[in-house]
Amino acid sequence: MADEVDEEAPIFAIAVAAQLAGMHPQTLRQYDRLGLVVPGRTQGGSRRYALRHVKQLREVAALSAEGMSLPAISRLIELENEARVLRRRVAELEQRLREEFEQRSRVFAAGSSGSVVTLRQGTRVRRATEVVLWRPEADGPR
Questions:
Q1: How far apart are the first and last CA of the chain?
Q2: Which among 24, 40, 53, 106 could disulfide-bond with 10, CB atoms 3.0 to 4.6 Å apart, if both were Cys?
């Protein structure tokens, strides 16, 4: 969908990201040096922040204001990043599983000449010329 925003696209320069996060640019530099919120870099070495980074910066500010230490916030962000990567991997694996299941969800029939014909799930068989021989179990063999 064209209206979706890519939260991973590194599009904001440090001044813009700082303004969006309600922070001073020097604070963003410090967070980068600490490994708290690490932006992408251009070929020239300039920092480029994604929308996800701006959200993290706001979260860091809120947690810091509540009294959480920067090392604790760093660990929390590290775990959130790991969870995000794992969720993405799970979605990829689920998609591959769906594709694999669709490939295996087929029906075999005998053609009028006796040859084996593969049919897609839900395809109607002409009874006068083809007979269903085998349909794989959804759960596999028992």
A1: 42
A2: 40
Do 98 and 128 belong to one domain? no
Of 111, 141, 108, the closest CA to residue 128 belongs to 111
Asked whether residue 3 is assigned to any structural domain, the reply reads no
pLDDT tens digits, 4-50: 778 889 999 999 999 999 999 999 999 999 889 999 999 999 999 99
Residue 54 lies in a domain: yes
Beta carbons of 51 and 9 less than 8 angstroms apart: yes
Q: How many domains does the chain have?
A: 2
CATH no. for residue 74? Answer: 1.10.1660.10
Which region holds residue 33: left if phi is over 0, alpha if psi is between -120 and 50, else beta?
alpha
> What pLDDT digit, counting tens, does each position of 96-137 carry?
998 888 777 666 666 667 777 666 666 666 665 555 555 556
Cβ proximity of 7 and 13 under 8 Å: no
Q: Identify the domain containing residue 24 by its residue range.
A: 14-102
Q: Residue 13: name the closest of 44, 58, 59, 34 by CA.
A: 44
